Amino acid sequence: MIDSRKKYQLQASVAYPHVGKLVEDYLNNNMSNRTYVARQLGVAPSTVSRYFDNVSLQLGILWKLSLITNHNFITELGAALPVDYVTPKEQELQNQIKTLQEQIEGLQKEIEHQQIEIGVYKNIVGK
Questions:
Q1: Among candidates 73, 53, 52, which has minimal Cα distance to 62?
Q2: What pLDDT, on a 0 to 100 scale, did the predictor assign at position 48?
Q3: How many other CB atoms sit within 10 Å of the CB of residue 55?
Q4: In which residue ranges of the chain is pLDDT below 50?
């Protein structure tokens, strides 16, 4: 019988990432001092090591780990979701890109127009 408190651990149609492994991989590749991480979390180093075995971690732990490591684990997990979602910040950046692309197109047309004018002036001057 499955413990009803752990139903979230059953694999859905789309596999979810092993959060403990994700954190462990990041710490192994980017932070050599796990004792520092444990101290910042207010837990024993062995507790941090036990996190690595957990398929899921509490949001509060991920939040604190993100702040301590200066790495956004929550966004990394969100990016793994097979759901299209654009954050307000991403939307703002997309709007800025669109505006800049429109400005570039306008400037390119202006350059083309000025090149034509230069050609006309050269013909008039005879160069």
A1: 73
A2: 93
A3: 14
A4: 1
